[in-house]
Amino acid sequence: MNALPTMRPERGPAMDDFLTRMGWHGAVRAMLAGDASFRRYERVTFGNTIAVLMDAPPPWEDVRPFMAVTKLLASCDVTVPNIIAADEEAGFLLLEDLGDSSFTRLVNAEPAREVELYTAATDALITMRRASAGQALAHAVPRYDMAVYLREAGLFAEWFLPQIHGIETARRLRTQYLAIWSDILTQLTPEQHTITHRDYHADNLFWLEGRSDYHAVGMIDYQDALWGDGAYDLASLLEDARRDVRAETVAQCYAHYVHTMGEGETRFAARYAVIAAQRNAKIIGIFARLCVRDGKAHYLDYLPRVWGHFLNDIKHPLLTPLKDFVDEHVPADWRGVFKPNLAIGGIAP
User: Fold this and answer.
1) N or C: which end of the chain has fewer CB within 10 A?
2) Where are the alpha helices (DSSP H) in the chain?
C-alpha cells in the first residue's frame, strides 16, 4: 500500500500540460471543489466552452474506475458527465460540466422543491436497478460481499472506539463488535442485484434544467461503485450525513421505491435498517479517521446527524445486539461531536 503524503502534491504545471496536450492551451482554471480523498476539481474555461478538470494524483488515486463506472452508468440510462479527454497515467480527466445546481444548493434556495428532486433521484435508482436486471452487469464491478461489509463496519471500531477507550481496549472490543455484525449479516444477507453508486447524496447530485424526470439528475463521485443492494443508495440519499432531509420526503421516497420495485415491506425494512446502520457506522469511523489521521476536523461537525441516523437504524429488532453493544460501550456524550485526542490513532485492520 502506498504511504499517504503529508500534504497534497502540487499539480498546477501538470494540469496546464494536460490541457495543452488535449487542445485546451490557455484555458483558465478555477478551483471548484475538493473532497475527503486526494482528488480535487477545477472548472476550466476555454473560449465559450466550460468543463471540469478532475485531478486524481497517482499513486493515491486512480481515474480508471471512474471511467469504467461512467460507461456502465451511462448504459443504464442515467445521467453522468461525458468524458471529454483523459490521461489515465497522469491522473487527469476533462469532464462535462454539470453546472452548479447541486441538490444541496438548490434545496437550500428552494425548500419546496425537495420532494420533487428527491423523487427524481429515487427514480434514477429504480432505473439503475431495472437496467441491472438479469445480472447482465454483475461482473462489471466488484461485489459488495460480506468481507466488504465487515471491513467497512469495522472502521467504527478501528477509528472511533479508540477515542473513547484507548487502543488496547478498543482492539478487544473490535472482536466483539465484528462478531455481532457477522451474525447480523448472516441472518439477513444484503442482496446483490444492482450497481450501487455508494455515495449517493445531495452534494453529489445535480439538477439539470431542460432535461426531464430522472434524466435531470446528474451524478458524480461514483468511482467506488460495487454490485450490491439497491437499499444502500436509497439509505445514502435519505440518511444524508450533510443535510437534514424532511421526514415527509423520506417517507414518500422510501414508499415510492418499495412500491415501484415490488419489494416485500417487512424484508425490505430489515435490509434497509441493516444496510443503513452499516453505512452510518462506517461514516462515523471515516469521519473520526479524517479528523485524527488527516487533520480534517470539520467532518466532526456532521457526526450528530450521523449518530441520529445510526441510533434510529439500530432500533430494528434484528439490530438489538448492536444496540446493546453501543449502549454499553459508547456513552451518550460521545454520540455526536467529540474533542479528538490526536495522540490516539487507529487500530491496524
Assistant:
1) N
2) 12-21, 64-75, 103-109, 114-131, 146-155, 161-187, 230-238, 247-261, 265-292, 303-313, 320-329
Average pLDDT over residues 160-169: 97
Show Cβ contacts of residue 54 under 8 Å, excluding neighbours closer than 6 positions: 39, 41, 63, 66, 92, 93, 94, 95
C-alpha to C-alpha distance for 122 and 128, rounded to whole angstroms: 10
Question: What is the DSSP code (8-state) at residue 3?
Answer: P
Tell me the DSSP string of 227-289.
Answer: EE-HHHHHHHHHS-SSSPPPHHHHHHHHHHHHHHHT--HHHHHHHHHHHHHHHHHHHHHHHHH
Q: Determine the Cα–Cα distance for residues 57 and 13; give it in Å rounded to an integer.
A: 13
Contact predicate 117/103, CB 8 Å: yes
Looking at residue 137, its pLDDT comes to 72
- Asked if residue 205 lies in contact with residue 222, where contact means CB atoms within 8 angstroms, the answer is no
Q: What are the pLDDT digits (tens) for 308-321? A: 999 999 999 999 99
* Strands 49-55, 194-196: pairing kind: unpaired
CA distance 297 to 315: 29
Closest among 196, 82, 189 to 132, alpha carbons compared: 196
Distance CA(173)–CA(158), nearest Å, equals: 10
Among the ranges given (7-16, 136-145, 146-155, 197-206), the one the predictor scored with the smallest mean pLDDT: 7-16
